[in-house]
């Protein structure tokens, strides 16, 4: 006989091979497009007629030249095997159909097929048996004659019968070497007690062993089931339709109809759950399954279509659980959801093949969690539409030859012998809503009838909880969830709404070799669009609202914040939440934003902003080998190595609920607030990677200098050292006052400004800091949300006209810093600075977004609100306190200097030789200033080491 592929084995093999593979989603196909097309998914013209004997004849003329496919499905399968001891007979009889007829022996039949070059086979399923052959059109009449002959005149000897029974047992034994076959056999035997789906198509082994003794029953079986009213003849290909019908009538018209019917036992409702372990005798990968009672494939009901959608969304290749188990963690090498079409309610299989026996608990919990999600959450309507589109277009794409069309028709006409069944199935599919998918999960993925099955070489599975309740977990999941994040509600009556998604993570969490990842991830969220909208579409939608959504990234904070008028808050939130929770992560946006970030380093910072460049190089020098030890924007070589998967990983691991503080201010309604919280709670991961601890800064020994050589006219200077003071420190307010006295940013009353800029006219400004203050060239006040566990004391001397001026200005700053340490502030200086800061602190909070941001910073540090902390701290300070703080935290022994200069060798020679740097003025100066100059021009900087680095090497 010809080799045959058992239909169930084929389905299992395919399922394992593709691991729930879905057709590619066609994002361009949508409901509006489909509405203008023929709603029938199978719209090939066909001619269907019913012969007087009840046989259905279906002829489909195609444009595929020469080839013809003949399919004859018979409505008998293992489902019809109701008599005890007769399981597996439909499959066995499929074998006997190749044993010859009264007119042609088996050998003669085979020789004719060989001469035709025909490709013939057959398969048996639970519900039907199908005989199919593909050949060239010139042999159509002869093929119809031969097939009609064996369906009407089958003849075999008892010897042939008994021999084939042995072959069938061999097939069973062959299949038994496949653990999947054993798993399915075990599950079905225990899932059903009455219905004939209890046995597989192969049948029970004891029945197979008895088949050689069932010759008389074989003849009865043939007489009952191989009748025209239970069959269809399907011809697809390059044929003449009328001629084909004439031949079907000629050869099949005298096939005598029968009258046999059978009552299929109805399976009672399931109660309780089961667990079965299969100990496999040889080496194999472990398997785990959750199996549920399913539904039939009645196309007039929504149940099966909803289950099919559920399987694709929650367990398909693009699902979260597949990505987690198979792709990311590799706990399993395959995962599939299998719910075959069946005439009566079948089973739903969720099966995984594990990479290690140790993975059982994790895989089990992941699948349970996914089921709970399916029962408690609604799927995204866009994703549902995409999968419907993929199903429809995938089906259409599969019908690319006559044989494929014939195969499809044989599988659907077995229900009522009508091709429209497939169109009815897809009509139901199109009607499925998110509510339907959730309903199906709650209707079918339940405890009653559930079977958990494991298969492994081990005698039993250790550490696997065999008892669980989906109902309890669903009930728990349905309880109102407390957000796993902090909510800072500072709403007021302002027409302007500000929302700040402040994540306590940032560039300090960038992996080694991937510096700049946090910055790039934030950019992909705010400037890369969402899954459903491009960034262009989002910007276009925000433009009439005059709204925005942007990112700021620092070492321990990522702030994703925006502003909108209250009247547009709902529309704006839809856009923002879509970007935050469903980033587009498109490859073209990724490349664009990565290029932009590299350009920000290479051009904007290194070439166009000497002032910021010097400050950022200083931070890298001070924090070498520390989590703060790289530019927030990253290093160029690192950025070039970052992949889109790196970005997705950082997003999943770092932008989590336990890292989040959501700040809200302005007139946002209660409903919109609750909607925002609910979305974040439902869709943002609860936890991710463990945060990198922030240690103290590396110890700095002596005075070190780094000169960055680049083509530039002026010389920029920054210097500083780490301090162990941040806003949570008891000395912070006092040191903040000292900083303000010495060099309040962009304030002409500060001391260094007066001594370097005003008295000597050397540059544009001179400032001091005890907190990170980026973009100082463009800002008069520091941004909020730059909270850091570690800080540095820094002096910024804005670019000077020459190396000599830079040398002298650096000496002035060091001279004055040493005087401050030695002598402290005067009472007058203290009182004036304290009075200034008592009022100035409030100016830092002049906008509601800054009020919100500073409040969230106070939460980060665990302090009172900023203004309250500052005013109370200032009120309690005395001059003695401040001068003690100066001596405690300021020093000049261990300092890092950074210079940006054109002639680096000249500057190095000046610094190392302590060359005098006398000042020359273009106007008269007071004698006391000139006398001070004569001291400062030779003031020793005492640098222990001076290095030069070319600009090309910086941040690379």
Automatic annotation (TrEMBL):
* Span of domain Peptidase M16 C-terminal: 219-389, 641-835
Q: Which residues form the Peptidase M16 N-terminal domain?
A: 61-202, 493-629
- Keyword RNA-binding found: no
Does Membrane appear among the keywords? no
| InterPro entries per the UniProt record, alphabetical | Metalloenz_LuxS/M16 (IPR011249), MPP/UQCRC_Complex (IPR050361), Pept_M16_N (IPR011765), Peptidase_M16_C (IPR007863)
Highest taxon of the lineage = Bacteria
In the UniProt record, the signal sequence range is 1-24
Q: Name one GO molecular function term.
A: metal ion binding
What keywords sit in the KW lines? Signal
Entry similarity comment: Belongs to the peptidase M16 family.
What is the name of this protein? Peptidase M16
This chain's source organism reads Marinicella pacifica
């Amino acid at each position: 006989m010809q080799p045959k592929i058992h239909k169930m084995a084929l389905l299992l093999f395919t399922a394992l091979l593709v691991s729930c593979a879905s057709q590619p989603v066609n994002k361009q196909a949508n409901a509006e497009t489909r509405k203008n097309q023929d709603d029938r998914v199978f719209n090939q013209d066909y001619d269907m007629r019913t012969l007087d004997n009840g046989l259905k004849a279906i002829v489909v003329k195609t444009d595929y030249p020469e080839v013809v496919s003949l399919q004859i499905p018979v409505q008998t399968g293992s489902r019809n095997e109701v008599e005890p001891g007769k399981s597996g007979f439909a499959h066995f009889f499929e074998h006997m159909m190749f044993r010859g007829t009264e007119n042609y022996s088996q050998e003669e039949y085979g020789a004719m097929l060989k001469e035709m070059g025909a490709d013939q086979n057959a398969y048996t399923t639970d519900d039907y048996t199908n005989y199919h052959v593909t050949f060239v059109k010139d042999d159509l009449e002869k093929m119809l004659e031969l097939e009609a002959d064996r369906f009407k005149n089958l003849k075999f000897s008892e010897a042939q019968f008994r021999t084939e029974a042995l072959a069938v047992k061999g097939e069973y034994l062959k299949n038994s070497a496949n653990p999947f076959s054993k798993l399915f056999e075990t599950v079905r035997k225990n899932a059903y007690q009455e219905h004939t789906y209890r046995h597989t198509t192969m049948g029970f082994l004891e029945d197979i062993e008895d088949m050689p003794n069932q010759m008389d029953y074989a003849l009865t079986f043939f007489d009952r089931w191989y009748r025209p009213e239970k069959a269809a003849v399907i011809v697809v290909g390059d044929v003449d339709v009328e001629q084909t019908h004439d031949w079907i009538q000629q050869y099949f018209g005298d096939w005598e109809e029968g009258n046999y019917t059978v009552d299929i036992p109805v399976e009672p409702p399931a109660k309780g759950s089961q667990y079965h372990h299969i100990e496999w005798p040889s080496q194999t990968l472990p398997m785990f399954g959750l199996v549920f009672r399913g539904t039939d494939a009645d196309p007039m009901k929504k149940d099966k279509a909803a289950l099919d959608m559920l399987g694709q969304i929650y367990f398909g290749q693009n699902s979260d659980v597949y990505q987690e188990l198979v792709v990311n963690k590799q706990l399993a090498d395959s995962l599939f959801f299998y719910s075959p079409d069946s005439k009566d309610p079948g089973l739903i299989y969720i099966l995984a093949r594990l990479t290690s026996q140790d993975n059982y608990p994790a895989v089990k919990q992941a699948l349970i969690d996914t089921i709970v999600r399916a029962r408690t959450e609604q799927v995204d309507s866009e994703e549902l539409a995409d999968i419907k589109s993929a199903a429809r277009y995938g089906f259409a794409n599969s019908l690319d030859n006559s044989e494929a069309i014939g195969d499809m028709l044989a599988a659907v006409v077995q229900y009522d012998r009508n091709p429209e069944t497939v169109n009815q199935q897809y009509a139901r599919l199109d009607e499925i809503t998110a509510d339907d998918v959730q309903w199906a999960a709650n209707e079918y993925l339940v405890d009653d009838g559930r079977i958990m099955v494991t298969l492994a070489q081990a005698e039993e599975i250790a550490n696997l909880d065999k008892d669980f309740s989906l109902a309890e977990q669903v009930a728990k999941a349905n309880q109102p969830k407390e957000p796993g994040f902090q909510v800072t509600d500072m709403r007021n009556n302002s027409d302007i709404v500000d929302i700040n998604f402040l994540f306590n993570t940032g560039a300090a969490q960038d992996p080694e070799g991937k510096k700049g990842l946090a910055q790039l991830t934030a950019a992909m969220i705010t400037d890369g669009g969402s899954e459903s909208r491009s960034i262009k579409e989002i910007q276009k939608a925000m433009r009439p609202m005059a709204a925005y959504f942007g990112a700021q990234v620092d070492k321990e904070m990522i702030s994703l914040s925006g502003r909108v008028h209250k009247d547009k808050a709902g529309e704006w939130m839809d856009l923002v939440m879509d970007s935050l929770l469903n980033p587009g992560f498109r490859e073209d946006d990724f490349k664009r934003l990565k290029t932009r970030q590299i350009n920000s380093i290479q051009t904007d910072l290194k070439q166009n902003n000497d002032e910021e460049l010097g400050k950022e190089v200083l931070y890298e020098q001070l924090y070498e080998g520390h989590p703060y030890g790289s530019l927030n924007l990253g290093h160029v070589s690192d950025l070039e190595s970052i992949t889109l998967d790196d970005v997705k990983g950082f997003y999943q691991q770092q932008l989590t609920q336990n890292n989040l503080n959501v700040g809200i201010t302005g007139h946002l309604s209660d409903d919109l607030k609750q909607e925002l919280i609910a979305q974040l709670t439902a869709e943002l991961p609860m936890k991710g990677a463990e945060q990198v601890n922030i240690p103290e800064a590396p110890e700095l020994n002596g005075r070190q200098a780094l000169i960055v050589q680049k083509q530039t006219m002026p010389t920029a200077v920054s210097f500083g050292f780490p301090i162990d003071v941040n806003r949570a420190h008891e000395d912070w307010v006092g040191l903040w006052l000292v900083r303000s006295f010495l060099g309040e940013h962009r304030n002409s009353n500060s001391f260094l400004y007066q001594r370097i800029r005003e008295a000597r006219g050397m540059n544009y400004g001179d400032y001091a800091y005890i907190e990170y203050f980026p973009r100082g060239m463009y800002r008069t006040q520091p941004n909020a949300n730059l909270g850091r566990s570690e800080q540095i004391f820094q002096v910024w001397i804005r670019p000077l006209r020459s190396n000599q001026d830079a040398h002298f200005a650096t000496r002035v700053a060091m001279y004055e810093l040493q005087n401050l340490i030695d002598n402290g502030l005067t009472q007058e200086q203290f009182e004036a600075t304290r009075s200034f800061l008592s009022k100035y602190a409030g100016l830092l909070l002049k906008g509601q977004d800054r009020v919100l941001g500073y409040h969230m910073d106070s939460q980060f540090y665990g302090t009172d609100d900023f203004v309250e902390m500052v005013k109370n701290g200032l009120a309690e300070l005395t001059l003695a306190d401040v001068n003690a703080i100066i001596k405690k935290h300021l020093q000049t022994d261990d300092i890092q200097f950074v210079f940006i200069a054109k002639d680096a060798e000249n500057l190095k020679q000046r610094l190392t030789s302590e060359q005098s740097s006398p000042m020359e003025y273009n106007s008269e100066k007071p004698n006391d200033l000139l006398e001070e100059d004569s001291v400062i021009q030779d003031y020793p900087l005492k640098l222990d080491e001076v290095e030069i680095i070319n600009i090309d090497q910086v941040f690379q």
